[in-house]
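Go through this pair.

…
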Amino acid sequence: MKKHKAIRFFMVITVFIMQVIFLMMTLKENYESNNFLIVTSVLLIALTIFFGYRYLDLHHEEHSYEKVSVVIWVPIGALICYSLNVYGDLGSVLAAGITGTTASFIPAIHKKSDYLKKLPAAIYCGAFVGMSSVEISPSVGFIVTAGVLTGVFFMLSKNLFLGIGGKLGSIAFLGVVVIYLLNWLWI
């Protein structure tokens, strides 16, 4: 039971920290002249996010994780979207739209299959990884690595952030940012 709570705490705090860092970077970039306004805005938004995580019913009390057989579709979705984006020269939004729309038809192959019903979300989560800019994700290896890490986050966050829009994009953002930072540190 403690292991599940530790994993839940790790996922929530990781997403929280990444959201605050992203907000700080965005505000600093857009409002360089007034640091007091930046600090105040970030603190207010961070407090709002913190109290939202703390007091809203965003999580199930049960602890379950997505199956690996579903999670492997996250990097596959990332590769499909990245290929359409970069090699098909369709652009990131159209590539993600095609990937997600195509994935939405997978459950129609066998309507009684619970497994096939879970695939569209995993593939669409991967599509968010694959729509990263080429400056951030310069190679297929980067996309696969970010897709695998995003898959791990997808697996761990099955019962977290329920009913909150943007969960798949936030998880994908988290996976890409972590791999980008690791890549930046090693090169």
User: Anything to note?
Assistant: The chain has eight helices and no strands. The mean pLDDT is 81. Residues 2-30 form the longest helix (29 residues). The radius of gyration is 18 Å.
